Amino acid sequence: MIDILTFPDGLWRATRARFSAVSRALTATGPFAPRRRVVGPVDQRWQIDLALPRLDTDEWPEVEAFLLMLEGQAGFVRLWDPQYERPRGVAAGPTGSPAAFSDGFGFTDGAGILDGGGAGFLAATALAGATVVTLGGLVASQTASLKANDRFQLDGLLYAVAGFGDFASNASGQATVPIWPALRQGAAAGSPVSFSKPSSVFQMTSDSGVDRVLPMRGDIAFTFLEAPEALMAPDIAA
User: Fold this and answer.
1) What is the rounded distance in angstroms from the CA atom of residue 9 to the CA atom of residue 219?
2) Residue 147, Ramachandran bin (φ over 0: left; ψ between -120 and 50: alpha; else beta)
3) Can you give the residue ranges of every domain in the chain?
4) Do 173 and 93 touch, CB atoms closer than 8 A?
5) Which end of the chain has a smaller Cβ tally under 10 Å, C or N?
6) Is the dihedral of CA 120, 166, 132, 24 positive or negative?
């Protein structure tokens, strides 16, 4: 069984966290005709460039310990994009009870904050390689159920709504949306979909890392690449 680490929540306050959509294709140029052939994309995955702020003496040992456990490129870690913690659209609506701010206070009228996005499900079976899926469990009859580039997690993997504009839900709470990347593996109808902190599994692109974590040092930078081999393992669908 593959062990997958989770980045310490208390340290998840990056000064830079860039999630890039990386597509790779095969290209060839004919020897006699100036025609460039492109096949693909043959590879689609997320890449993260992460930089941590200056750490105090109680924090940097935790990062160092985490990197030791990760063992460079050999380890796996589940990460989510802090810029897309929740969808911009209504999605499945707010969940849970209202929460206060980190200082314990709410709004002046006593209201708190609800976790937006919630959870839905795959409304129709989709085959590996699909670029369009139908999601269910959404708030019904919303003109902006999901918006361009909203993120969701399906079978432990991260996907983005790839089209422009807003995507409406019907009276049954379903919406059909284009996705990126193409579906990694087939998914059955009813498979759970999460819109809150959607994540995927990543590996570091270098075996170095621990040597860069020094007391009080700021802007510690790491690069993680989505792990395509691990994505197909059934024991990571969480």
Assistant:
1) 18
2) beta
3) 1-83+197-238, 86-97+113-196
4) no
5) N
6) negative
Q: Which two tokens stand for residue 167?
A: 């995507």
Q: Are 156 and 102 in contact (CB under 8 A)?
A: no
Residue written as token pair 């992460």: 50
Distance CA 191, CA 87 (A): 19
**CA–CA separation, 50 and 77 (whole Å):** 13
Q: Which residues contact 19 (CB under 8 A, 6 or more apart)?
A: 46, 47, 48, 81, 83, 84
Local structure of 10: helix, strand or coil? helix
40 CB neighbour count, 10 Å cutoff: 11
103 in helix, strand or coil?
coil
Q: What percent of the chain has pLDDT over 90?
A: 34
What would the CATH number be for the domain defined by 86-97+113-196? 2.40.30
pTM of the predicted model as reported, rounded to 2 decimal places? 0.81
DSSP 64: H
Contact 1, 237 (CB under 8 A): no
In angstroms, what CA-CA distances link 229 with 31, 95, 131, 185?
35, 33, 20, 12
152-170 pLDDT, tens digit each: 999 999 999 998 899 999 9
pLDDT at residue 124, rounded to an integer: 97
Q: What is the pLDDT of residues 48-95, one digit of tens each?
A: 888 777 777 777 777 778 878 888 888 888 888 888 888 999 887 764
> What single DSSP character describes residue 231?
H
